[in-house]
Write a structure and sequence with these properties.
Layout (H helix, E strand, L loop, with lengths): L13 H4 L2 H19 L12 E6 L5 H12 L3 E4 L7 E3 L9 E3 H11 L2 E5 L11 H12 L4 E3 L7 H15 L6 E6 L10 H12 L3 E5 L8 H14 L2 E5 L2 H5 L4 E5 L9 E2 L5 E3 L3 H9 L8 H4 L7 E2 L13 H4 L6 H20 L4
Parallel strand pairs: 1-2, 1-5, 3-4, 5-6, 7-8, 7-10, 8-9, 10-13
Antiparallel strand pairs: 11-12
This protein binds phosphoric acid mono(formamide)ester.
The site of phosphoric acid mono(formamide)ester has 8 residues, from helix 3.
Length: 358
């Protein structure tokens, strides 16, 4: 296995920055760690005495619990720095005296005393300005001497994508000729970033799958992400296609991943210096959402997928909006497997980025 390139690296735009071979190594390491955990084999030597700092600007169950459990199982220690209880880290130009602390100082200080910094930020804490949270995490990386890990920003959710690729490998044995559908689905909440859908078109395209992206008008993703998906498909011999029909996308699919995200048409607008010139329009967004309530994953649509096809979702799912109970609780659903694999994905990321090469 080729692991030299991992040590000390950041995990931020990981679908773009890590090669297909590196993703395969991460999947192998995660599955090895999963086996060791199941067999009760001690692997606490891997990150013995190392400290992971986490900062959640948004709520979390899976990411928070699995990073905390994962570092402990690797012999390390976890400190949750709750923004608001610490001085909230802020980018230059967004500071409030004695309430915030400039990121360059926070990142340099934590680098002296710990071994990695993991951050989640999107939506309200990033003012609904697309890219603001991603830039915030990159500002940490600029000043940090230790790896910075993106636990979901407004552009990508790469730890989720890794866990999902592990799940695909387990269910299908590989990626070639596997049809993967990333689809928009309705929710009563419009407060959802592009992170999951963007990561979950990029990662399967990178791994060489046949990816179909389905969404109603108004729910397009970042054009640069779509371009990268086409590039990856060319490089790997996979394919990438888009459609405005959930039913068309589901036909003969091996995997469907119906999930809600917000409409970029209603996000905040910024000027050329990144300053907000128009607020987000959540009422306009809601009207668009309500016109697309029929984008729900139900038993009728699941009849269109292959008999061996599976239903995936990152969770939390909005039941009776994104998906019906009989689908998410049914035999084709692998959502709890995906959530479990967050643990093994995060352990692989931490072991390779934070671990010693001796
Ligand atoms: N899928 C996911 O990231 O879950 P949490 O929001 O609970 O961390």
């Amino acid at each position: 296995m080729k692991t030299e390139s991992f040590n000390g690296k950041d995990w931020i735009d990981a679908e773009l920055d890590f090669t297909k071979e590196e993703w395969e190594t991460l999947i192998d390491v995660a599955l090895d760690l999963k086996r060791r955990y199941a067999m009760g084999e001690d692997h606490t030597h891997l990150l013995k005495g190392k400290t992971l700092y986490t900062m959640f600007f948004n709520q979390s169950l899976r990411t928070r619990s699995t990073f905390a459990a994962g570092i402990q199982q690797l012999g390390g220690f976890h400190v949750d720095l709750e923004p608001g209880k610490t001085y909230t880290p802020a980018r230059k130009g967004y500071e409030v005296p004695y309430k915030t602390e400039r990121i360059c100082d926070v990142a340099r200080m934590l680098s002296r005393v710990g071994d990695a910094i993991a951050i989640r930020m999107y939506g309200e804490p990033a003012q609904w300005i697309y890219g603001f949270a991603n830039a915030t995490i990159k500002e940490f990386a600029e000043y940090s001497d230790v790896p910075v890990i993106n636990m979901e920003c407004d552009k990508y959710h790469p730890t989720q994508a890794l866990a999902d690729m592990i799940t695909v490998k387990e269910k299908f044995g590989g990626f070639k000729k596997v049809k993967f559908v990333m689809s928009w689905a309705y929710s009563g909440s419009t407060h959802k970033p592009f992170a999951v859908p963007q990561s979950l078109v990029l990662a399967p395209a990178k791994m060489g799958m046949d990816v179909v992206f389905a969404r109603p008008k108004g729910f397009e993703l970042d054009p640069e992400v779509i371009k990268k998906c086409h590039d990856f498909a060319k490089e790997t011999g996979g394919s990438f296609a888009e459609t405005e029909s959930m039913e068309d996308a589901f036909k003969d699919a091996d995997i469907v991943y119906p999930k809600c995200w917000g409409s970029g048409d209603y996000f905040a607008q910024v000027d050329e210096n990144g300053k907000k010139i128009k607020n987000e329009d959540l009422d306009g967004m809601k009207t668009l959402f309500d016109a697309n309530k029929h984008w729900i994953c139900d038993a009728k649509k699941m009849k269109l997928v292959k008999p061996s096809g599976i239903y995936m979702h990152c969770l939390p799912a909005d039941r009776d909006m994104e998906v019906t109970d009989d689908v998410i609780d049914g035999p084709q659903s692998v959502v709890i497997d995906e959530a479990e694999n967050r643990l093994h994905a995060h352990k692989a990321i931490m072991a390779l980025l934070m671990g010693s090469r001796i």
